[in-house]
Design brief:
The structure holds two protein chains of two kinds.
Chain A: E1 2-7, E2 12-19, E3 22-29, H1 35-41, H2 44-51, E4 58-63, E5 68-73, H3 94-99, E6 102-107
Antiparallel strand pairs in A: 1-6, 2-3, 3-5, 4-5
Chain B: E1 22-28, H1 36-44, E2 49-52, H2 57-69, H3 78-92, E3 96-99, H4 106-119, E4 127-131, E5 160-165, H5 170-177, E6 182-185, H6 192-202, H7 211-223, E7 251-255, E8 261-265, H8 275-282, E9 292-294, E10 297-300, E11 305-310, E12 313-317, E13 320-323, E14 327-347, H9 351-368, E15 377-382, E16 401-410, H10 413-429, E17 435-453, E18 460-464
Parallel strand pairs in B: 1-2, 2-3, 3-6, 4-6
Antiparallel strand pairs in B: 1-7, 4-18, 5-14, 7-8, 8-12, 9-10, 10-13, 11-12, 14-16, 14-17, 15-16
Classes of the chains: A alpha+beta, B alpha+beta.
Protein name (chain A): AtuA-like ferredoxin-fold domain-containing protein
Organism (chain A): Micromonospora endophytica
Pfam families (chain A): AtuA_ferredoxin
Chain lengths: ~120, ~475
């Protein structure tokens, strides 16, 4: 078993939405990618660090039937769409940010698409 | 109305068997949506119902404020342009139209729509206003917890401009049963706009929490963002490609009596409709897929099955209702002062250093000349860190150009306007080569949420003669 580093962009697709001051995102693995591995490596701690929020501001809910999971990042939108001073008050761009996250990915033999860490 | 350049070449009408299926389409997924997809659906979609979802969470607060001050009609006037393009074909083929574009003034919107119908030769068209979502006079501030906090609404006493409850499908269904062919509602849950006509057509009991009702809500949930189901908000450049987004077709569903549905878009339109696009919309803005709270039931989406049954043709079913909510969510608008933003651009070697110098100059003058608190100001470098200011990826290459964006939050418009003046003055008083200054000030209304007992919210239907 080797562990490589992979970008979520190579593994899954994402969409970002918002409710109040929470960013609500979803990830779905592409066909051929292992959803169980994604659930195992996408820890609350990794997501919280990536979005620079406390761990208790993040929740992750897997939906195995859809090979998808939802992520909530609370307090991540500088007040939300009505009052955020940011360029992107909805946080629509955060799907792109999520897909930049790099995760350790166990592979049983040489994986052709990835570089060893 | 013609739309040369983006009109769809394919004019094939797409009929269906109205004795067994009910065809419901979406004509707008938000107030600023495109116009011609709805016209295309109205013209050749053989629709039983066309729904325009035009009311975001903050929009109703702004509409209430505008109505009270006499600066707006309290509803979205763009609905009249939308209906001008779709009303005659939808009504002519026996269909009906439902929208939440009534916003803070469904009655006023209904009067305007009645006038439009007369102008278009539909003199006796029954138009209904659904009201009752305005609960401002029923809130006991000390008793209403602000969701997600330990505070009560008392914290905002004196600043509350609106309070609208998310109502369910019952009011819309009542309006349709009363004979309305166009229904103008205000703050209604988005999915309820679709569930209402379906419940009337198939005789579903909205309070029963049955699987047909659950799947009717699923239809509404999937359709409510229009093009986001059919390939909008999806293309990522190299990997997730979408054909012909300039002619994106909006979706419709052919629904049967048990709530099962086939989702399609019109032939010849752009976009794509498959498992990938549908999963993204199924879970869009869903905090907990096991517990999606709507006024018409708490929905469990975790058991939904999506099947591709043809080209750009899918089925989705398997939603269930686990309980009925005892309370309804209320969107409360809070007067929130003013937000100013102003920008200036620098290019070439050292552009980042010059933008950062410009920011320091603004901050210094904000404090020393204008005696204002530093906490009112925020700075971002567009092209480097503006969309994700919290992220520190480490030193990257020197940018080719960078745009400084400053924003300020104040309680008076005059104070907010200072930011634009200071940014403009950088032309001759700031770093070298600064250009393209823009500035704006807007009034902001914050939105917080609370809950209200269902029994305090009674929807009312008025059908205009």
């Amino acid at each position: 078993m080797t562990v490589v580093t992979r970008r979520l962009w190579d593994i899954a697709h994402a969409r970002a939405g918002d409710k109040g001051d929470s960013s609500i995102l979803l990830l779905r693995t592409y066909p051929g990618e292992d959803f169980g591995t994604l659930v195992a490596v996408l820890t609350v701690a990794r997501v919280a660090e990536h979005f620079q929020v406390p761990a208790d501001a993040v929740s992750i809910t897997p939906v195995p039937r859809l090979s998808a999971l939802t992520l909530v990042v609370r307090g991540g939108l500088a007040g939300g769409v009505t009052r955020s001073p940011r360029v992107d008050p909805h946080g629509k761009t955060l799907s792109g940010h999520l897909l930049d996250l790099r995760v350790p990915w166990p592979v049983s033999d040489r994986h052709p698409d990835v570089e060893a860490s | 109305m013609t739309h040369q350049g983006v009109a769809t070449a394919d004019q094939t009408p797409v009929t269906h068997d109205r004795s067994t299926t009910y065809r419901i389409a979406v004509g707008a997924g938000f107030a600023g949506d495109r116009y011609e997809p709805a016209e295309d659906l109205a013209r050749r979609g053989d629709l039983d119902a066309l729904v325009f979802e035009c009311l975001a969470e903050r929009t109703i607060a702004l509409a209430q404020q505008g109505l009270r001050r006499g600066t707006s009609a309290g509803y979205d006037p763009r609905i009249l342009r939308r209906l001008r393009g779709s009303l005659v074909p939808v009504i002519g083929s026996g269909g009906l139209i439902v929208t939440n574009a009534g916003a803070a003034n469904p009655h006023g919107a209904a009067l305007a729509v009645r006038d439009l119908a007369r102008e278009l030769g539909l003199a006796d068209l029954p138009v209904a206003a659904v009201t009752g979502d305005d609960v401002l006079d029923r809130l006991v501030l000390d008793d209403c917890q602000v969701l997600g906090t330990d505070l009560t609404l008392d914290r905002y006493r004196g600043r509350i401009v609106s309070a609208n409850a998310y109502t369910g499908a019952a009011g819309i269904a009542d309006a349709i049963r009363a004979g309305a062919r166009i229904v103008l509602a205000g703050r209604t849950a988005d999915a309820a706009l679709f569930l209402g006509p379906l419940a009337v057509r198939f005789g579903w009991d909205l309070a029963a929490g049955t699987d047909p009702v659950a799947n009717g809500l699923l239809v509404g949930h999937l359709l409510e963002c229009a093009g986001q189901l059919t390939g909008g908000y999806f293309a990522d450049g190299p990997r997730k490609t979408v054909p012909d987004l300039a002619r994106l077709g909006f979706p419709y569903a052919d629904v049967e009596a048990d709530g099962s549905a086939v989702y399609r878009k019109l032939p010849g339109t752009g976009g794509r409709l498959d498992t990938l696009t549908v999963v993204e919309q199924l879970l869009y803005e869903i905090e907990d897929p096991h517990r999606y709270v709507t006024p018409d039931g708490v929905l469990d989406l975790s058991g939904v099955t999506i099947d591709e049954v043809g080209a750009d043709e899918i089925t989705a079913h398997g939603a269930t209702i686990t309980s009925q909510p005892e309370q309804l969510k209320v969107s409360v608008g809070i007067d929130d002062g003013f937000l100013a933003s102003a920008e200036i651009v620098y290019a070439g070697t050292g552009c980042r250093a010059r933008a950062e110098l410009a920011a320091r100059i603004i901050a210094e003058r904000w404090a020393e000349v204008h005696h204002r608190p530093a906490g009112e100001l925020t700075f971002d470098l567009v092209g480097l860190s503006s969309a994700r200011p919290f992220w520190q990826p480490g030193d990257g290459p020197e940018p080719l150009e960078v745009r400084l964006r400053a924003s300020a939050r104040t309680w008076s418009r005059a104070d907010a306007a200072i930011l634009g003046e200071e940014m403009e003055a950088l032309y001759t008083n700031g770093p070298a080569g600064g250009g393209g200054v823009t500035a704006q000030v807007r009034e902001t209304v914050g939105v917080v949420s609370t809950l209200i007992p269902r029994s305090l919210v009674q929807t009312k239907v008025e059908v205009l003669a």
